[in-house]
Amino acid sequence: MVQDQIAQLYDSLHGILEKEGDIVLRARLNAFYINGVRVKFDYSNYHIYKSLWTDFQSKEISAISFSAETSEDELQRFLQIWMRKDLPSKGACEKIVALIDSENIDHIAVEKIAPVELNVSREKSAVRLYFSGIHLLKEVFEKQKEEGAFNLNLAKRWMQSIYNHIQDDESFIYGLTNIKNYDDYTLNHSINVCVLAIAFGRRLGLTREELIDLGISAFLHDLGKLDVPKEILDKPSTLTNEERAVIETHVQHGAERLIELKSARRLPIRAVQVALEHHLKADLGGYPRYVRKKTVSLFSKIVKIVDYFDAITTKRVYRPRTLTREEALKEMQQRSGEEFDPVLLKAFMHMIGVYPVGSLVALDSGEIGIVFEANPHPAFYMRPKVKVIADSNGQVIEGEVVDLTDIDAETGKFKRTIVKCLDPEEYGIRVADYFLARAS
Ligand SMILES: [Fe+2]
Ligand SMILES: [Fe+2]
Question: How far apart are alpha carbons 204 and 183 in whole angstroms?
Answer without folding.
Answer: 31
